[in-house]
Amino acid sequence: MNPEVSSGRRRAILALLAVTVLIVVMDLTIINVALNPIQQSLDATNAELQWALDSYLITFAAFLFTGGVCADRFGRKKTLIVGLMVFGISSVLGAYAGTVTELILWRAVMGVGAAVVPTVTLAIILNVFPPMERPKAIAAWAAAAGVAFAVGPVLGGLLLEQFWWGSIFLINAPLIVAGVALMLWIVPESKNPSPAKFDPIGVLLSIVAVALLVYGIVMGGEDNEWLSAGTLGAIVGGMALLALLVVIEARMAAPSLDVSLLRNSRFSAGSAAIAFCFFALIGAIFVTQFYYQAVLGFSPMEAGLLMLPMGVGSMVMSARCPKLVMRFGPRAVVAAGSVVMALSFVIMSQFTADTPTWLLVVAQLVFGLGWGCIMAPATASLMSVVPPVKAGAGQAVSQTMRQVGGALGVAVIGSILGVVYRSDMEKSVEVLPEALREEAAGSIGGTLRAVDAAQLGDRAPALMSDAVDAYLSGMEVTMLVAAAFALLSAAVALRWLPKTAPKPPMPPAPQPAAKAADTPGARA
To answer: For the chain, how big is the Rg over CA atoms in Å?
Structure first.
């Protein structure tokens, strides 16, 4: 902990870092509401739109570990500011992209800058706050990440009602400028006082390995061809390079990746619990956004507003988590949150085309209450075994597992949804011209576009009714898959997370002024 930071300044730093996390995490979801305007403006294909989403996800995951290592070695404040500047500049360039290729490129650069933020902000929090205050600080940090998933679609809908699609990226610029200015003013610099020799091989291996793995997962989900040479080769290659990375780092005297962390059940279980729930969370958001807009007919802003209860529930429970953990322990709180998340997915699996809005709100609220019980206590548990001087690298390992889980969530759940939808629509699309059948059978969005293009007249309602039924069938299966992963998180928590919260260290007893002046601690 930095003893020179006053309590008031610590609160200001926490608020600033929480907003910073909110901006970056929000960018994972805000683009979803702008896909249709982007497609029309840039004449993009469905595959190109998917790459506009996935390029950010791939580079975000690939550079998490590198960002954490650089922060511990070169300075956390410095690294965070550089990352935010990269994110802000590429956001502006992406907003004015003239082709979909340019947009994909700048989204990838945005992911590189954004990768620094989750790992480094938490490392700064661990350095600034004393052990007794860290659980509440981590809870606030986790709440910001949870709220971001709900705020993104709402803000995107509001901007699209007034401006062009690029405004969803351009809004990042003034926020980043203000954030960097405040960081230069109030955030203290910190880093590992005894950094190991820079490990270029480990850094390069981590980037290539994670990028390959996430790329393979994304490709498998897009094409639903998990055994193709390209998909399987990328996944196997990524896993092989990760194994090589672990072997190399384990033999180093002062590695960038502390392999011993992975052998600690508190660290690995906390990371795994978050990864499994993140798989379920990202997959569920992906499915419900299409349900709200394509099945129920809500506008992008209305669909975004329906996500707000999830953010509210997450924020409320994250704030209460420190007290719950002290009373019931991390094991019970994380397991209970995972079960509540699973319950929300089971409820969503039974949604129909006539589900009342109040039930949608309740399901999202339950979803958020469950997620709010997971992120903060699991993060606090895993970071409790990481030395503060290696906070950036330790959090980077956990964040990488989380992002890989998120990539799997979109890919696997999207793939399952596509298989069920295509199976149910195979005969229904025969009323369309042959050139439109492939796209129409692939997704409910493709069906909507094919119906508009074919001008079916009286046959259109029947085809759309079949499309809604097919989507609901796929949604039922995918939500149950998400529930299973949430329950897997509960099982991990019950088996490996600690039963009781670690007791915070007692503050040192006050000493007389004369004696205190002679002690090494007082001179420090």
So the answer is: 23
Q: What whole-number distance in Å separates Cα of residue 522 and Cα of residue 524?
A: 5
Report how far residue 130's alpha carbon sits from residue 132's, in angstroms, rounded to the nearest whole number. 6
| Nearest partner of 223 among 10, 12, 431, 419, judged by Cα | 419
- Which tokens sit at 85? 């500047």
Instruction: Please state, in angstroms and rounded to a whole number, the distance separating the CA atoms of residues 182 and 417.
Output: 44
Question: Contact at 8 Å (CB) between 369 and 333?
Answer: no
98 DSSP assignment: S
**Contact (CB, 8 A) for 374 and 324:** no
The two three-digit tokens of residue 283, written as one number: 């997959």
- pLDDT tens track for 353-412: 999 999 999 999 999 999 989 988 888 787 777 776 666 666 667 777 777 787 778 778
Q: Distance between CA atoms of 503 and 507, rounded to whole angstroms?
A: 12
Q: Please, which residues have CB within 8 angstroms of residue 118's CB and are 6 or more apart in sequence?
A: 21, 24, 25, 64, 145, 395, 399
Q: Is the dihedral of CA 153, 159, 165, 168 positive or negative?
A: negative
pLDDT, one tens digit per residue, over 133-191 is: 888 888 888 788 777 777 787 888 888 888 888 898 998 889 899 989 988 888 888 77
Separation of CA 427 from chain center: 37
The C-alpha atoms of residue 309 and residue 361 are separated, in whole angstroms, by 6
Q: What angle do CA 379, 287, 60 make, to 5 degrees?
A: 45
Q: Give the CB-side neighbour count of residue 76, counting CA atoms within 13 A.
A: 30
**Nearest C-alpha neighbor of 164 from the set 96, 88, 107, 90:** 96
Whole-model pTM? 0.79
- Alpha-carbon distance 243 to 33, whole Å? 38
Hey, what's the torsion of the CAs at 378, 140, 341, 326, to 10 degrees? 50
Q: Are 91 and 172 in contact (CB under 8 A)?
A: yes
| CA separation for the pair 326, 308 (Å, rounded) | 28
Residue 376 in contact with residue 357, Cβ under 8 Å? no
